[in-house]
Amino acid sequence: MVIGVDIGGTNIRAGLIENGVVIHQNQCALQNKDSMDATLYQLIETIKPLTTQAVEGIGIGVPSVVDIEQGVVYDVANIPAWKRLELKRIVQERLHLPVKINNDVNCFTLGEYHYGVAKGIGSLIGVTIGTGMGAGLILNHQLYMGHNCGAGEIGLLPYLNKTLEEYVGSQFFMDRMQKSAEEIAKEAIGGDHEAIRLWEEFGLHVGEALKIMLYAYDPEVVVLGGSISKAYPLFKKSMEESMRSFAYSNTLQKVRVLASEHSHIALLGAASLIQFDMNVLAKGTRI
C-alpha cells in the first residue's frame, strides 16, 4: 500500500491506495495559508490517519517547482508561507515513512499514464485547467521535468495582453462575469445564451494553448484535467475549431484530445512516485 497526496491551492487530499484503487481518502480545506506551521499541521493531520505498517511510502504532488532529490519546494502556488520548504524531510521525520515529491501536474500526468485514459501512451501531455493552467510531459515513456522541475509551465506564457492561464483558467470567468466557472457552466447547461457564448470563447483560448503544445512537443495524446475540464462538452467544439488553423494538418488528424475520467487520478499519480521508477516508465518497473 502507498499514500498519494494532492496539495492544491485550497485543499489537501490524501488517499490510501492498494493495487491502483483508492480505498480510503481524507481531505481538508487549507486555512491560515500565511502560516507555515498551520499549513504543515493540516498536511500531517490529513495524512496521518492513513498510515499503517503496510504503507510503503508517501508520494506528494505540489503546485510548485521542486528540487526532486532534496524534496524542497519553492514558491508554492496559493500558499504564501511555502516560499522555500524542506517538505520531504519534514514529512519523513514526522510520519517515519519514505517520501517522494513532484509537481502536481506531473503527478496528474503520471496518473493518466499508469491508470487513466492515456495508459501506456509514450508521448503524452497532461493539462490541468483550474485556478491556473499547467502541463506535465511524458516524452518517449519518460517524465520530462526540466532541470528545475519547471517544464510545462505554459500557463505563464505571455498571451494577448495577459498570460495564457488568465484566459485558460478560472480567472477568465471571474473577469468576464464575476462568477465561478462552475456557476457559469450550470447556467450554460440550463440554456443561458450569454453563458453558452462565454464557454465557446473559452474554448477558442484552450485551442490556442493546445496549438502551442503541439508545436513544441508533438504529442500523441493530450489529456485535460482539473476542475474546469469537467465542463469539456461546453467548450470542446470551439476548441476544435480554434485548432483547425494548426499548420500541420496531418499532425492534427492524428493527435487525440481526451478528458480525464478518473476523479482520483492525481492521487494515483502521486502514489506512483513511490510505486514506479521514474526512469523506466515504459516497463512500469516497480521499486
TrEMBL record:
Highest taxon above the source species: Bacteria
Signal peptide positions (record): none
Family: Belongs to the ROK (NagC/XylR) family.
The protein's name in its UniProt record: ROK family protein
Record organism: Olivibacter oleidegradans
